[in-house]
Amino acid sequence: MERNNTMVYYLSGLLGSKAKECVLMFVFARGKAYVSEMAAFFPELSRSALQNAAEVLEKDGILVEGQQGNLRVYEFSPRCPYASSLQLLLQDVAKCYPPEERERLFIYRGAPRRKGKTV
After folding, report:
1. Where are the beta strands (DSSP E) in the chain?
2. How many angstroms separate the CA atoms of 51 and 38, rounded?
3. Nearest CA-CA partner of 29 in 66, 64, 37
4. Is the pLDDT assigned to residue 1 strictly greater than 90?
5. Is the pLDDT of residue 61 over 90?
6. Are strands 33-34 and 71-76 parallel, antiparallel or unpaired?
7. Alpha-carbon distance 64 to 55, whole Å?
8. Separation of alpha carbons 90 and 74, rounded Å
9. How confident is the model at residue 16 (pLDDT cuts 50, 70, 90)?
10. Sequence-separated (6 or more) residues with CB below 8 Å from residue 7
11. Burial of 111 per CB tally in 10 Å (0-12, 13-18, 19+)
12. What is the mean pLDDT of the chain?
């Protein structure tokens, strides 16, 4: 499926940047995420913009960084007092995305399927 590069940003005004919206939405959809994975998903944003946004969100206590092998992986901080409210907002915003974007964002296969396995 060819991707439409006209991504609509609903929270960039509130958050102050498109990159922060993309980082939050990606972490919300996947649970955990690393920057190069986000950069591949959002080619319209630079890797450094996404990295900076993730670092700011970590500094603000919204995300925490962990290590998975040699990757820096981000996820929502369990200590963030408004994480559940933020995730509810992200859930509502995700409903505004075009169906094909929502599907790409939320349906993720981490490993290839075994040959012959039914979907």
Report:
1. 33-34, 63-68, 71-76
2. 9
3. 37
4. no
5. yes
6. antiparallel
7. 9
8. 16
9. very high
10. 42, 44, 101
11. exposed
12. 89
